[in-house]
């Protein structure tokens, strides 16, 4: 059986659209584990009204916002207990095209892979960059994962090109992918330290260490309304969570020394100063990143 895990936070309309696309396009044996992550609006009421009598949907309501990693881990453990061999981790802002889930299941079974991600299409029709081919070097990370990519646009465009054929890759975007539940359990599921962001990087490192393969499946297509799953644009809370997770990742998984970590922190502070120059809470944002220096040392 396939477990399908969806987390809702304040955007129940998107969640309903996502689930409708699943039901319309996938006829296999599945169960949806729908977690509301302590939404502040009427999401709980609306989702309960919609799915309380739906045998395909198990509703889970959390009194606290567990974030991405802890929220998905909660549902993954329930899926494992229910005998799910595979789990589809899905943002609620994903719309599945016909055969998308079927082809993901087929790919992960036939390739005996740990994780498989689909081709992701933006509402505009443009293909979203959702893969990384190898573990980034320090120079590559500082060039392509920071604001510096704006100064090497041609190189960056080549860097983020997605494959034209199905193949093994280093990293798959976290908006939606299918995993082998047994393999996932063996590496401890998601790292609970992170609240939002960098789960994919950490997962790639854990998979690589265990000798597991991640794959990109060109025959599976989904539409991604990017950003809607977070319930709004980046703010001081999400930016802080981003830096906390990134600091943890580069310290614990990439094993960067203090000099490299300090250089990245300097880059992030400069980015905030530049990008937030017209925002009313610029001082708070910059202050948050300066205080965030403590994450470099693991405090």
If you had to describe this structure to a student in words, what would you say it looks like?
The structure is a single chain. By secondary structure, this protein is α/β, with parallel strands linked by helices. It folds into 2 domains: 2-227, Spore Coat Polysaccharide Biosynthesis Protein SpsA, Chain A, CATH 3.90.550; 236-297, no CATH class. Helices cover 42% and strands 20% of the residues. The mean pLDDT is 91. The relative contact order is 0.14. The protein is globular, with a radius of gyration of 19 Å. The chain has helices spanning 12-25, 43-51, 67-81, 100-111, 138-144, 153-159, 181-186, 199-210, 236-252, 258-275, 282-291; strands at residues 2-8, 30-37, 57-62, 86-90, 94-96, 115-121, 131-132, 167-169, 171-172, 176-180, 214-224. The strands form 2 sheets. Strands 1, 2, 3, 4, 5, 6, 8, 10 and 11 form a 9-stranded mixed β-sheet that branches. Strands 7-9 form a two-stranded antiparallel sheet. The longest helix is centred in the last third of the chain and has 18 residues, at 258-275. It contains 11 helices and 11 strands. Helix 9 runs parallel beside helix 11 and helix 10 (258-275) runs antiparallel to helix 11.
